[in-house]
Amino acid sequence: MIEQIRGTLLYIETETITVDVHGVGYLIHCGNPYRFQEWMNEELTVFTYQHVREDAIRLYGFRFREERKLFEKMLQVSGIGPKGALAIATSGHPGKVVAAIESEDEKFLVKFPGVGKKTARQMILDLKGKLGELLPDLNDHNEGQKPVNAVMNEREPVSDNPELDEALEALKALGYVDRELQKIKPVLSGESMTTDAYIRRALQELLK
User: Fold this and answer.
1) How far apart are CA 83 and CA 80, in angstroms?
2) Which residues of 30-61 are buried (b: 16+ CB within 10 A; e: fewer)?
3) What three-state secondary structure class fits 109?
4) How many CA atoms lie within 13 A of 173 on its CB side?
């Protein structure tokens, strides 16, 4: 297994980043590639998980080892594949995911893409009581936030539209400011599209 990759960040796309390691470009799938924007053309370390199946070998990337650990735990749940596990582990709320599982909060869990009531219940059945090893490390990465144990009954909702959120992050990376994006967000919020489609639609509005 490839545990981590250290190299120069060359490209960011809507689902992947490309990291150059001594002339070899590694394509890494990420939950939100634009989290790595600050390292563009600079050296960075990405913690990776190598997923192998009959028709593909993919690398999934994470900023922290703890996100990867949560991703690996999610893969153990029936009904959750790599894409769904990636969205959950890199949502920006890994501690809250653990808290929701421990407190059997299905309403929080079903807000993730592809997670219905049946899958949320399966997550709780499969993982409750098995995520304690993640808690200290997750607290370490929650700088400026309350510890995991403090959010057991006080959670912020997960975005109902992560594709739109990723599109807005991508537009910020292109240089658009919050004032411009807030102006077009109501137009985009009424539509259901992929991240790429949101970006194209947003650019049409911004260029009017």
Assistant:
1) 8
2) bbbbbbbeebeeeebebbbbebeeeeeeebbb
3) helix
4) 20
Handedness of CA 6, 9, 12, 18 (dihedral sign): negative
CB 15 within 8 A of CB 59: no
Residues sharing a CB contact under 8 Å with residue 56, sequence separation 6 or more, in sequence order: none
Phi-psi category of residue 36: left, alpha or beta, with phi > 0 → left and psi -120 to 50 → alpha: alpha
Per-residue pLDDT tens over the stretch 83-128:
999 989 988 767 788 888 988 999 889 888 788 999 999 999 999 8
**β-pair type (56-62, 4-12):** unpaired
Instruction: Report the DSSP pairing between strands 56-62 and 24-29.
Output: parallel
The pTM of the full predicted model, rounded to 2 decimals, is 0.66
Q: How far apart (Å, rounded) are the C-alpha atoms in residues 147 and 160?
A: 24
Q: What residue type is 108 in one-letter code?
A: F
Torsion sign over Cα 144, 146, 148, 154:
negative
Q: What is the DSSP letter of 105?
A: -
Any idea how long the chain is?
A: 208
* Residue 26 CB coordination number (10 Å): 18
In eight-state DSSP terms, residue 38 is G
| Structural contact between residues 6 and 44, judged by C-beta atoms closer than 8 angstroms | yes
pLDDT tens, 135-173?
Answer: 545 545 444 444 444 444 444 445 567 778 878 877 776
